[in-house]
Amino acid sequence: MRRRVLGTALEIAVPLAILALWAILSADSQTYYFPPLTDILDTFADTWLFERVGSDVVPSLVRLGLGYGIAALFICEGLISKRNALIGHVAVDPHQATRFASCGLQFLAEAGVAGLVEHYSEGSEIVLPRLLAEGRCFDLAFVDGNHRFDGVFLDLAYLAGLVRAGGVIFLDDYQLPSVARAVSFFTANLGWSIEETATTDDLHHWAVLRTALVPPERPFDHYVDF
Ligand SMILES: C[S@@+](CC[C@H](N)C(=O)[O-])C[C@H]1O[C@@H](n2cnc3c(N)ncnc32)[C@H](O)[C@@H]1O
Fold it and tell me: Of 32, 37, 38, 163, which residue has the fewest beta carbons closer than 10 angstroms?
């Protein structure tokens, strides 16, 4: 028993002693290759903790068109079942209170996941540029808002700046020419790919897009017909 206690004490004391020695020996260091330990810890904290946890580490989702919140509930269920409780979920819907009597938000509250959702009651054409200006970054976007060509095109153009490189954009109603045409600009010009489309139902398709891992270099007049 005594040996085990001594062993555990050594396991804690030795690394602490090494860190203390490292801190003392490096305290006045001016060299780039052997900076003071305190500088290393400060930089580590600035880079990986606090403000940047939200943008760099926590997986996040931006959803356009909350509606009745059915798809949102499925996504929350998936995230929770993967024990990924630290999600950031932004939902944008200008008609939630008027056309949907806030049913989507109410369902989320009843399911106990309202705390995961940051809701904006303006159109995506207003919210997305604001999120972009705030430097927000998302892993996944779910587009099911304004289905006209100009609405979808604008959503995707802003999402090009909001979704991380190699991120995923799920699009509902891909059977609509307006939606498919808007997507084709981004696959033809920005190196996005279509990973999967639904084929089971003739009347209702969806598509999963992957944004480019390395966005292509484009001259100022670059244009590929789509
Ligand atoms: C087909 S419904 C979405 C249904 C939803 N996916 C669900 O699971 O219940 C389309 C939604 O897009 C919203 N919408 C319409 N114009 C929008 C815009 N400019 N920005 C964001 N959402 C918009 C509508 O209010 C509506 O909630």
Answer: 32
